Amino acid sequence: MSLTYVQREEAARMLREAEHHAVPIEPLSALLPGLDLAGAYALQRDNVAWRLADGASVIGHKVGLTANAMRRLLGVDEPDFGHLLDDMVHRDGAPVFAAHYCRPRIEPEICFHLAEPLSGPGVTVEDVLAATDAVAPALEIVDSRIRDWRITLVDTVADNAGSAGLVCGPWTRLRDAPDLTAVTADLIVDGERVASGSGREVLGHPAAAVAWLANTLAAFGTALEPGQVVLPGAMTTAPFVSAGQKIEARFGGLGSVSVTFV
User: Fold this and answer.
1) CA-only gyration radius of the chain, Å
2) Given the DSSP bridges, would you call strands 184-189 and 172-173 parallel, antiparallel or unpaired?
3) Distance of CA 48 to CAs 25, 129, 168, 172, Å?
4) Residue 68: pLDDT band by 50, 70, 90 thresholds?
5) Strand 95-96 relative to strand 255-261, pairing
6) What is the pLDDT, as a whole number, of residue 255?
7) pLDDT value of position 3
8) What mean pLDDT comes out for the span 221-239?
9) Which domain holds residue 142?
10) Per-residue model confidence as pLDDT tens digits over 1-35
11) Residue 75, Cα to own-chain centre: how many angstroms?
12) CATH number for the domain harbouring residue 70
């Protein structure tokens, strides 16, 4: 459905205010029946442009819904992408205010740092690995500005694919890193392992998710640029987190990363 100018402005404003005040809204898919994927990405771009005008900068992208576990959890059947902004980044081990989010979840991921541009279509896993200079253990804070996470694909796409925060651990040069499909991640909440997964969970290879992103962005006239980072998707399911919890992800061969919610 093509949104009217008034509908598009109002929907974008509602999402912005929901994020700013950490007060979720009803699903856009219910408020705007027939909202399609193109319209949802247009809303995402509107709010990213608003953030840039307010002084933020794009540092990369995230790919979501690349693991079967996450697609089952949220009831969707294809990946999506969102933007990563500099004001989303938190230091490894730093405290983060849980009250800044509506109902956050946490995901362990392998973060890619690009040294070369990637421009689709036709980008392959080999192209991604050739363009990547380093990888790091990471935690993505995902949040839904939609009440109770009652989302369809268009809801989460419009909502910047749920992207809300990024915590990166130490970087490892790709040439020194293990096979990314074999890298395992244990997600530890308050000292207890709550989930485990491997790089194979992410479209068979985390670099395949980055290739999907580069090829999908081509339709929007956008390329991945040197110096940008990419989160390719969760290696496990994504539990809810709350104030008072410490979350750590331990990655075989890549080290660990942590965050404490206060």
Assistant:
1) 17
2) unpaired
3) 19, 28, 22, 30
4) confident
5) parallel
6) 97
7) 83
8) 96
9) 5-261
10) 578 889 999 999 999 999 999 999 999 999 998 89
11) 17
12) 3.90.850.10
Which tens digits make up the pLDDT trace of 126-181?
999 999 999 999 999 999 999 999 998 999 999 999 999 999 999 999 999 999 99
Residue 47 one-letter amino acid: N
Q: How many domains does the chain have?
A: 1
Written as one letter, the residue type at 165 is G
Tokens encoding 137? 């253990």
Question: What pLDDT sits at residue 66?
Answer: 85
Task: Using alpha carbons, list the distances in angstroms from residue 55 to 27, 51, 52, 96.
Answer: 28, 7, 5, 21
Lookup: tokens for 179? 């096979």
Scan for tokens 């079967």, then name that residue.
Answer: 68
